[in-house]
Structures are given as structure tokens and as C-alpha cells.
């Protein structure tokens, strides 16, 4: 598996899109800091960008990489190699590349600005963790979609729709339901709805560590009120771990049963 992971990582590193992705974050981070000259404001702005962009890039990279490597997968499957090790190695190399791009694109500029010696270091580490976590989760979802649908156009279309649903449509549907059933106690429903959206979980976890209550939204406010900051953060962390482990288990099952 480690050889497949290494090959996948080197192949992704040679891709121009990895450099474009890293360069974009480098430019945005430098620009935001130079415009505000304030690390806290820069981190808040970056959190808004990364919460929307990292899931999109993760799901598009994952889907495109699987389809482009399909013939190579078929070749390797003809060899005495474990299917699980093969899929895990290919996915791991791609996910590591996405995380490295984020760490270089956002981490290096902020470290050069002295973030590690500032009061915002905890928020910085949390932002890096959430960005990498969303990349891992949505690239996993991308692999599952690509394995389910052999048609590349259909797979990419479904991937974009899933990102659109979690990033934009989800909040609209939630608010619509809360409005329609406003006369009923919906606090438990709201907390359950938050758990089913990894982007919302990451956003709330970040805003819980900020003094910016307006960014928390209704779902974040409910979770903070009824679970408290400490318990709420634990619930969110466990939910994000499950969002990683469950798709990973599905990837293993689908990889074993996949008929090429």
C-alpha cells in the first residue's frame, strides 16, 4: 500500500492543478493580511473562504483523479494486490496532496507573519485542522461517487450537486423547515440537522472559538445554548470523525465488491 500511496502522491504533486491550488491560497492569504494587517481578521476571512472552497476542490479533485486513474486501477487489479490496499493507497496519496497544499498555501504565509507567537495560534491550528478534515471527507465522498457511477459526466455532476447541497442548499432547507414548523420545539431537530452536514460542523466549531456570534447562525447558537461550548465541541469533533470513518468503511466495501 505504501508504494501505491507514494506513487499517487508523486502523481498528484506533478499535477499543475496542485500548484494552482497552493498558489491560490498563497495569494489570498498574503492579500488578506496586507489589506487588514490583522491576524484575527485574516483568519476570519480565510475561514469563510476555506469552508466553501476546500470541500469543492476535494470533491472535484477526488472524482477527476479516480476517473483519470481508472485504467491504471484495472491494470493493478490484475496483479496479486489487495483491493483495499490499492484503493486506500490511491485515496491516501490524493488526500495528503490536498492537505499539503492547504498547509503550504495558508500555513506558510501566516507563520511568516508570526501567527505561532500570537494569541490567535489556537484559531490558526483549528482552521488548518478543519480545512484538512473537509478535504479528507469530501475527497472520500468523491471516490464513493466515482466508484458508483462509471459515467464521468454523471459522476462529476453528482459531485458538484452534493457540494452545492451541503454548502448552500442545506441551510436554506433547514431554515425553511424551521419557519414552517416554528410553533413546535425544534431544538433537538436542529442539533440533529447540524450533525448531518460536515461543512456546518466545521463552521460552528470555528465560530465557537471566535467572539463573532453573528457568524454562528441559528444552528450554531442552538448547539452552543443547549450543549454548551465544551460538550458542543466534543459532539462536533466526534461527528466529524464519524464523517471520516463511515465513508472510509463504505470505500472498503465498495472497493472489494467493485466489478471493473
What does this structure look like?
By secondary structure, this protein is an all-alpha fold. The chain has one domain. Helices cover 84% and strands 0% of the residues. The relative contact order is 0.13.
| Parts with pLDDT < 50 across at least 5 consecutive residues | none
Beta-strand percent range: under 5%
**What is the string of SSEs from the N terminus onward?**
HHHHHHHHHH
**How would you sum up the major sheet?**
none
Backbone shape: globular
| Share in helix | over 70%
Number of strands: 0
| Oligomeric state of the chains present here | single chain
Give the helix tally. 10
- Radius of gyration over alpha carbons? 19 Å
> What is the rounded distance between the termini?
20 Å
Count of structural domains: 1
Structural class: mainly alpha
How much is the average pLDDT? Answer: 84
What's this, in brief?
The protein has helices at residues 2-13, 16-36, 39-68, 70-77, 83-112, 121-148, 152-180, 187-195, 198-207, 217-257. The chain is mainly α. The radius of gyration is 19 Å and the shape is globular.
Topology:
Elements: H1 2-13, H2 16-36, H3 39-68, H4 70-77, H5 83-112, H6 121-148, H7 152-180, H8 187-195, H9 198-207, H10 217-257
Helix pairs in contact: 1-5, 2-3, 2-5, 3-5, 3-6, 3-7, 3-9, 5-6, 5-10, 6-7, 6-9, 6-10, 8-10, 9-10
Features:
260 residues, mainly alpha, 10 helices
Amino acid at each position: 500500500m505504501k508504494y501505491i500511496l507514494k506513487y499517487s502522491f508523486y502523481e498528484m504533486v506533478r499535477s499543475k492543478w496542485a500548484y494552482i491550488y497552493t498558489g491560490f491560497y498563497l495569494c489570498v492569504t498574503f492579500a488578506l493580511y496586507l489589506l487588514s494587517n490583522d491576524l484575527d481578521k485574516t483568519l476570519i476571512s480565510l475561514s469563510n473562504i476555506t469552508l466553501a472552497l476546500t470541500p469543492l476542490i476535494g470533491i472535484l479533485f477526488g472524482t477527476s483523479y479516480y476517473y483519470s486513474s481508472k485504467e491504471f486501477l484495472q491494470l493493478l487489479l490484475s496483479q496479486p494486490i489487495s483491493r483495499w490496499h490499492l484503493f486506500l493507497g490511491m485515496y491516501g496519496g490524493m488526500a495528503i496532496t490536498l492537505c499539503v497544499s492547504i498547509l503550504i498555501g495558508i500555513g506558510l504565509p501566516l507563520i511568516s507573519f508570526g501567527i505561532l507567537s500570537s494569541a490567535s495560534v489556537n484559531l490558526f491550528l483549528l482552521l488548518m485542522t478543519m480545512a484538512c478534515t473537509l478535504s479528507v471527507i469530501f475527497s472520500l465522498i468523491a471516490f464513493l461517487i466515482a466508484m458508483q457511477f462509471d459515467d464521468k459526466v454523471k459522476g462529476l455532476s453528482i459531485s458538484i450537486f452534493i457540494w452545492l447541497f451541503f454548502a448552500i442548499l442545506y441551510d436554506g432547507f433547514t431554515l425553511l423547515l424551521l419557519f414552517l414548523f416554528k410553533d413546535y420545539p425544534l431544538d433537538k431537530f436542529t442539533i440533529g440537522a447540524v450533525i448531518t452536514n460536515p461543512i456546518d460542523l466545521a463552521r460552528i466549531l470555528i465560530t465557537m472559538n471566535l467572539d463573532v456570534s453573528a457568524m454562528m447562525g441559528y444552528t450554531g447558537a442552538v448547539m452552543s445554548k443547549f450543549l454548551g461550548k465544551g460538550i458542543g465541541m466534543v459532539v462536533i469533533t466526534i461527528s466529524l470523525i464519524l464523517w471520516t470513518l463511515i465513508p472510509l468503511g463504505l470505500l472498503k466495501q465498495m472497493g472489494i465488491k467493485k466489478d471493473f
